[in-house]
Amino acid sequence: MSGINDAGRGWVWFFWSAAIFNFAIGAAAMLGPTPTVDTRLVAVLVFAFGIIYAVTAHDPNRYASVLWAGVFGKVAVVALMVAAGLDDESYGTTAIVLALDLLFAFGFLIFLLTRSEVDDANSASITQE
Q: pTM higher than 0.70 for the full model?
């Protein structure tokens, strides 16, 4: 049975959405008007996490464990940005990006914490066959 069918088509679309989100944010930061080296470095890492989410979308159950890095990264970025304070100039855009990061992190957690139930059910049906 393929990982896509086991995880459900909704999760595949969710992980593709996370990948596209990271690709867009990473590319925008790299190609901004005057990105610093630090900004470009962070943008490359954001883009690279998009690759992780795209790979996960191909077979969510197989690659699920790498999502822990996504949960940690997204929550840590939000915490660091909020602790540093958001400047008035980009508050609206930054707040939206951070809110979406939290939603993706929450989705990753839901997938990670509920997939063991799916795996147990699949294992039981395989041993019964």
A: yes
